[in-house]
Amino acid sequence: MQERQAWILNGFVGILLILVAIIGGVFMLIQEVPLIGLSLIAIGGLLASGVTVVQPNQSQVVIFFGKYLGSIRNSGLFVTVPLTIRRTISLRVRNFNSKKLKVNDVEGNPIEIAAVVVFKVVDSAKAVFDVDSYEEFVAIQSETAIRAVATRYPYDTFENVELTLRGNADEISDELAKELQDRLEVAGVEVIEARLTHLAYSTEIASAMLQRQQATAILSARKKIVEGAVSMAQMAVEQLEQDGILDLDEERKVNMVNNLMIAIISDRGTQPVVNTGSLY
Prior knowledge:
The chain has 280 residues and is an alpha+beta fold. It folds into 3 domains: 8-89, no CATH class; 94-201, 2-Layer Sandwich (Tetrahydropterin Synthase, Chain A); 220-265. Helix content is 47%, strand content 23%. It is built from 7 helices and 10 strands. It has helices at 11-30, 34-48, 124-129, 134-150, 169-184, 203-243, 250-265, and strands at 8-10, 51-54, 58-64, 67-72, 76-80, 85-90, 94-97, 101-104, 110-121, 189-201. The longest helix is centred in the last third of the chain and has 41 residues, at 203-243. Residues 274-280 have low confidence and may be disordered.
């Protein structure tokens, strides 16, 4: 199905024609010309059955005995084809808030996820004829798309080598919107925006995953500290040798680097030991 413009006539002109036909029919009946009078009244009644009012940001799908004649998108008072059924479709921007869904991320961890989808109908013919109920279709396909996207990425990672659901919200939202648009195209619906509104580990593993996150964060921080400590120790030794302050052999270099590493990496503040020499 493809939306097209239905035949319409300005409503005020149509009402004027209806009144003229009815008044003319009554006048003919008074003049004892029943055939013409009844014909005019019947014509006025038929035209009156096509009177319709379209609100702003709405569309009316015109159906004549099971055949799609077109849609009326202009707002106002109109007269369309008589004896037709007209179904009103809202073209306004609307939100769909999904419920919290429990799914497994790419690593198999159960998570809770929810999203809000901003959409509007752009093709009223597809919305009416290609799906049973486009609103229900949007709800089901939105939840399906959220599940599909959530299973492609991990909830979180400290490696910074891939997209994550928690750390790359904009990229995930863009992919979710594209996934939804592909699914909702058949219903004549345009996805304006899709955003995650809830993201968390499932309650049964939340405590364990928090400990895992803490451990991973500690290991990552330790790695950075060790890298920095090695660099600082190397710089200190090179600077001392370059300035000629100390002339260290290999064993003393090792001891100095060891002391610097302990001082930098230790969780507690170091206590300096001052060698004052022997008292005797």
